[in-house]
Amino acid sequence: MKKIAVFTSGGDSPGMNACIRAVVRTGIYHEIDVYGIMYGYDGMIHGNIRKMQSHSVSNILQRGGTILKSARSEAFRTKEGRKKAYEELSKHGIEGLVAIGGDGTFTGAKIFFEEFGLPTVGCPGTIDNDIFGTDYTIGFDTAVNTALEAIDKIRDTAAAHDRIFFIEVMGRDSGYIAIECGIGGGAELVMVPETTTTIDEVVKSLKGLRKSKTSSIVIVAEGDEEGGAAEIMDKVKSRFKGEDKEFKVTTLGHIQRGGSPTAKDRILGSRSGMAAVEGLLKGESNCMAGIINDQVIYSPFDACINKSKPLKDEYLRLQELLSI
Amino acid sequence: MKKIAVFTSGGDSPGMNACIRAVVRTGIYHEIDVYGIMYGYDGMIHGNIRKMQSHSVSNILQRGGTILKSARSEAFRTKEGRKKAYEELSKHGIEGLVAIGGDGTFTGAKIFFEEFGLPTVGCPGTIDNDIFGTDYTIGFDTAVNTALEAIDKIRDTAAAHDRIFFIEVMGRDSGYIAIECGIGGGAELVMVPETTTTIDEVVKSLKGLRKSKTSSIVIVAEGDEEGGAAEIMDKVKSRFKGEDKEFKVTTLGHIQRGGSPTAKDRILGSRSGMAAVEGLLKGESNCMAGIINDQVIYSPFDACINKSKPLKDEYLRLQELLSI
Amino acid sequence: MKKIAVFTSGGDSPGMNACIRAVVRTGIYHEIDVYGIMYGYDGMIHGNIRKMQSHSVSNILQRGGTILKSARSEAFRTKEGRKKAYEELSKHGIEGLVAIGGDGTFTGAKIFFEEFGLPTVGCPGTIDNDIFGTDYTIGFDTAVNTALEAIDKIRDTAAAHDRIFFIEVMGRDSGYIAIECGIGGGAELVMVPETTTTIDEVVKSLKGLRKSKTSSIVIVAEGDEEGGAAEIMDKVKSRFKGEDKEFKVTTLGHIQRGGSPTAKDRILGSRSGMAAVEGLLKGESNCMAGIINDQVIYSPFDACINKSKPLKDEYLRLQELLSI
Amino acid sequence: MKKIAVFTSGGDSPGMNACIRAVVRTGIYHEIDVYGIMYGYDGMIHGNIRKMQSHSVSNILQRGGTILKSARSEAFRTKEGRKKAYEELSKHGIEGLVAIGGDGTFTGAKIFFEEFGLPTVGCPGTIDNDIFGTDYTIGFDTAVNTALEAIDKIRDTAAAHDRIFFIEVMGRDSGYIAIECGIGGGAELVMVPETTTTIDEVVKSLKGLRKSKTSSIVIVAEGDEEGGAAEIMDKVKSRFKGEDKEFKVTTLGHIQRGGSPTAKDRILGSRSGMAAVEGLLKGESNCMAGIINDQVIYSPFDACINKSKPLKDEYLRLQELLSI
């Protein structure tokens, strides 16, 4: 293998740049040419491909976002689109791919591999930490810390006014960000898609806390089955009628995707990027380079996409127990 | 004057604790007893008043929120309520008041002074910077820096996906936070209540920038005449139909109220608190201790409440010129 | 077991408060009285012991330092001192101990247990991550992120002036902070006590980088065999005579010990604190509650003190490979 | 005037990039070509000059350091060097200069102007805030906030161990950073070059505080007449012999020069850069564009270099009074 290409796809996450840097430099170290594909699958189709040098990735380790950019690609969902992509890669003599992204990225990579047989290794880049085959995903630790800083600030103002705050964090199908924010932020309640918490239970909990706590924080994962934070707040509020209690809602939104990555995400991105390239060289393909119990493990895309990673029961218990 | 009391009222702002600390320690320095009133006017009415020592305000300088808490008080809007408040203060022998807050706080303080003649000096504590009689209000600098950090993060993800982001910052009647965030965040457009920017103009600007910029950020003050950021985005988006452009919205919300105050806010809070106490001792009353051109100036509550502080034209021009 | 006590000892680390909070609340949850011992072993000897309530640990989760304070204790190194400590604990009816700290703390705890048989479980609180029996210690992640933020800032000014910076981070016997900062900060070189890097090698590396890099950063663990960062810089500088290259040194020092803990350290502190109490209840003693491969593991104090935790070879390789 | 050039010189400061961006974009707005000179006066002599476009300064507003880099230039201190510099500028047809830097930069600019008559306007870029003709310099606010964050962290560990910390901040001839950190950080004592504080006084103060404070922080400006923080600590420590008190020292160093600029510094850099270009166009020269009482003021280089800016007495008093 003498020429490989790297791209980012799906929602960006802090640490993707560290990963790109590691891919490029590991390639150079092994005397391989590394190409960068701009805008993910869309750029692949349009031949938006450029050769990377060591200095192309200087001074990006500490930056959020992705210098290779990301985009949706309807065309790549079609056979014609993928064929065009393969032709563009062939033109450049690309013999291997590193795909940085999440579920959707790997689904595309798997189909592409099955159709054209181009060796591909993935790196888990998404803030949601919802990918099987790795303990943590690149960007998750930064997202949690960013959310936590926001929650710390909100607690200041919640405490000053004795308010109940509902704070919505990211996580469409996964409560990982929510539960870590709940433990780390000392939240009174956490609502995640993995467990059922009814409005009745929320109301009961909050009413129970009235004696011991003047203000409360409820963390809501965006994918919770009772709705978003605003909707849940409205339902709860209606059950406190006649009581002199203020309710507020904040949706943290896209600030969770950006920012300079934490040490953990810089290291995870770097390890994963190096492992992807060295995996390709050793013949790994159609799989993701994750870190499980501090070891690099290559898991088939198939497992990464289809198996789900459960929330840790210990974390749910920890959050509940410590919120007394 | 041998006994004074201090309270915070209205929305909390970072630096209020620095101000409380300065009031307490300046009082002690001048051998005056200082009392803290909890929950603003409401606590005044309920006699929620406690004597403060030097160590009561230890280790609070760097904290957001207010250790004296804040609350709304419907009762204080009535003559009976205010009479009750005066009686409670009299019971404790309070001879002077320091009121930390914004417009509403000073309106209450003015009426109370006119009715009962208790000497009162205000300190400008609000993140909005919408108070006449001071160049900056306590908490404004922190709010701007908090919003700016969020905007920096959002720019990472906006750039990664070539998106147009509408970001709503606080400021109901004032575009101060928005304009400073606009200049500091390198925003492409800023929408403030003080100037009229039509949807037509926004659309025209954004379309004009398409050649030179792949992503754009529009900062919207919550009080803008065209609506909040979400509403404005919807209007603008409908005018980009058929174009492959993604629009996103984020409302920064209450994170702007909390957090450890910046150096500027700690110093402003400290100066203002010291000036309030020393003003009371020198016979100042029914006025606010602001800082204008780096000098302590006592302005009548009447002026602070009724005069408006215009946005600087230079800032509007600076933002526009630099966004090319 | 109906009464336990908790204390912190040795150098403080961010997350110790999260751990104290977890100990107190887990105790309360299991209907046990929890006492706080102030100033570690010294306070034990002097009977500086107080009962803790749930609200005693409110609002401390996000704070650096330790509310129970820490101190050296010469007296506890004597048999008489320890006897006095045991008598004070007996007076309060203490039946179990949670010791939060590092090597020295556990050595004391082990001797104390062997002499008086009071069940004791430790929690690994130290920024150095040099304790066997846990993947990470409480405070390590925060220290690394604090150092990394400082390194990012220094890189700005290093790059502006094309300078070579030597940055000393904490770690007397351990290069953990240094190596994570080296990978995360994109350092050109890392000098750790675990490996030998001669001045010759440093000079050769830096001279080799002259073509590709205008500025360089060398991270030095305080315990490196070639001396501190200042000493190493002097040695290296003398080998660049006649060349127009500026060298600078910064010792990050005690900022690495303080600050609001990261999510990881809040969670690790919380888990470890809960595990210590529940371990005591289940009969664990003379051991530390660490987290290995994401599982709570109780390792004998003996092992924690005497076995050393090697640096990961993968990390050394990663840093070297990516610095090209 | 159709062609101007901009450069940075002396120590870098956060906000210099905001200033460069404003110079370039204001020039383009007024249909002027703007050239960037790399490495200050040194690059001027070597003709290291390149044309800047609007996108040359994209995405730099939020970055520390200076994209134009900085360097010392012995050659520029000679007549021959300056002649060479003038010839290089003439080759490019440069008709005006914007010099971003401090004292040394403006001294060079003044001599250069007097010899060759090339119109030059300066922008005050230095973290020390020691320049007459402007209330604040670009980078000062960021440096203070960076130092303050470090001081907050150190206070955590100082409090945990009841220690006395001596913290050295930057400021060779000026106590501005020190005094703002002293007020903002709640320091017990501040030692600045502008006032004389003897070791006797320091010892007396610290001994006096023993009853009320268990830990103390002394901020030392690097240019204090009693020496650096380490030297002062040693002197003080020797006077506490026999007392069980721990002393520690931290020198914050170069972290104060880097980092993402605060809102204030981004705005100040932007205003100053715009004012420099528009000043040149209106015929201003041999002067600096400062901001005094929120107005742009052009002060002759001569005054900026030779007049000193005294510390505010109010600040010294505020710090002292609030440290009780």
UniProtKB/TrEMBL annotation, chains A, B, C, D:
Kindly list the biological process annotations in GO that this record carries: canonical glycolysis; fructose 1,6-bisphosphate metabolic process; fructose 6-phosphate metabolic process
- Where's it mainly located? cytoplasm
Q: Which residues bind substrate?
A: T126, I127, D128, R163, M170, G171, R172, E222, K248, H254, I255, Q256, R257
Under Enzyme Commission nomenclature, its number is 2.7.1.11
GO molecular-function terms, A-Z: 6-phosphofructokinase activity; AMP binding; ATP binding; fructose-6-phosphate binding; identical protein binding; metal ion binding; monosaccharide binding
Q: Where in the cell is it found?
A: Cytoplasm
Alphabetical keyword list: Allosteric enzyme, ATP-binding, Cytoplasm, Glycolysis, Kinase, Magnesium, Metal-binding, Nucleotide-binding, Transferase
> Mind telling me which InterPro entries this protein's record contains?
ATP_PFK (IPR022953), ATP_PFK_prok-type (IPR012003), PFKA_ATP_prok (IPR012828), Phosphofructokinase_CS (IPR015912), Phosphofructokinase_dom (IPR000023), PKF_sf (IPR035966)
What range(s) does the Phosphofructokinase domain occupy?
3-279
The annotated active site, in chain numbering, is: D128
Residues holding Mg(2+): D103
| Binding, ATP | G11, R72, S73, G102, D103, G104, T105
Q: Does the keyword Cell membrane apply?
A: no
Q: How is its activity regulated?
A: Allosterically activated by ADP and other diphosphonucleosides, and allosterically inhibited by phosphoenolpyruvate.
Pathways involved: Carbohydrate degradation; glycolysis; D-glyceraldehyde 3-phosphate and glycerone phosphate from D-glucose: step 3/4
**GO cellular component terms attached to this protein's record:** 6-phosphofructokinase complex
Top EC class of this enzyme: transferase
Q: Which reaction does it catalyse?
A: beta-D-fructose 6-phosphate + ATP = beta-D-fructose 1,6-bisphosphate + ADP + H(+)
Could you say which cofactors this protein requires? Mg(2+)
Q: Which residues form the signal peptide?
A: none
**Cross-referenced PROSITE patterns:** PHOSPHOFRUCTOKINASE (PS00433)
Fetch the SUPFAM superfamilies from UniProt: Phosphofructokinase (SSF53784)
Q: Which residues bind ADP?
A: R21, A22, V23, V24, R25, R155, G186, A187, E188, K211, K213, T214, S215
Quote the function comment for this protein: Catalyzes the phosphorylation of D-fructose 6-phosphate to fructose 1,6-bisphosphate by ATP, the first committing step of glycolysis.
Q: How does it assemble?
A: Homotetramer.
**What is this protein's name?**
ATP-dependent 6-phosphofructokinase
Taxon lineage: Bacteria, Pseudomonadati, Bacteroidota, Cytophagia, Cytophagales
